[in-house]
Amino acid sequence: MPTNKINNTTRALEYIRNEIISGKIKPGERIIENNIATQVGMSRAPVREAINALVQEGLVEHNPRQGASVRQITIDDILDMYEMRVCLDTQALKLALPHLNEQHLNVLEGFNRQMRESAEQLQMIGVRDADFNFYTYVVEISRSPRLKRAYHSLLNELEIATWLLYDPNATPNFQNLEMVMDEHDIILKGLRQRDLAKATAADVHHLKVWYEAASIKAAKVGSGKAELRTED
């Protein structure tokens, strides 16, 4: 493929992704190739390739009759992600615990510090990135290649959900963010004390808070709210 075509595809890809992330193209809204091509000043071919790439990423879905549109995150999507994340987090903490050393703990503490600094500035992207980096690092410490593959796949889904449910016009609630920070500190404290039960309990509560917030946002474009499934 010619270099200029690759560059145009990349440029179109970044443009459309930013339009989605910024909320200018909303969940469920169609992506019109002609409009995008005009806006970025190129032909439809690289725009079409960019849309196909976004379909593969999961940000966009394609309907043979209606064309491409921004993916809508459903309540069931949120519930499935939450339950999968609980399972994978629990396993990651369990497998990482025997391998933890002081250097690992200091790196995790650094991620928590980044989260708190971002939260104080109400920088939600910074909070999200530090949060994902914290858990990704725990998975690295676990030394489980299969867990790593499963976790990275799920984190991609979670990142997409976070972007699609993110309201760039909403003012973040620092009190809620502070609660998230405190839970992360408890997780780290549990790991330092080699207390798996403490770390896991804080993690599960942390994820439940995310689920509740994401579920409420998803319900605004859908209907109802999925209930957390519990063991009989």
Indicate the topology.
Elements: H1 3-21, H2 33-40, H3 44-57, E1 60-63, E2 67-70, H4 75-96, H5 102-120, H6 124-142, H7 145-165, H8 174-192, H9 196-219
Antiparallel strand pairs: 1-2
Provide a descriptive summary of the structure in words.
- Strands 1-2 form a two-stranded antiparallel ribbon.
- Residues 223-232 have low confidence and may be disordered.
- The protein has helices spanning 3-21, 33-40, 44-57, 75-96, 102-120, 124-142, 145-165, 174-192, 196-219; strands at 60-63, 67-70.
- It is 71% helix and 3% strand.
- The N and C termini lie far apart (56 Å).
- With 232 residues, it is mainly alpha-helical.
Summarize the structure.
The protein has 232 residues and is mostly helical.
What's the story with the biggest beta sheet?
2 strands, antiparallel
> What would you call the shape?
elongated
What is the mean predicted local confidence, pLDDT?
85
Q: Which series of helices and strands comes N to C?
A: HHHEEHHHHHH
Give the end-to-end Cα distance, rounded to a whole number of Å: 56 Å
Q: Count the beta strands.
A: 2
Helix content: over 70%
Strand order of the largest sheet: 1-2
Question: Which regions have little confidence, pLDDT < 50, spanning 5+ residues?
Answer: 223-232
- Estimate what percentage of residues fall within beta strands: under 5%
Number of helices: 9
Radius of gyration: 20 Å
Structural class: mainly alpha
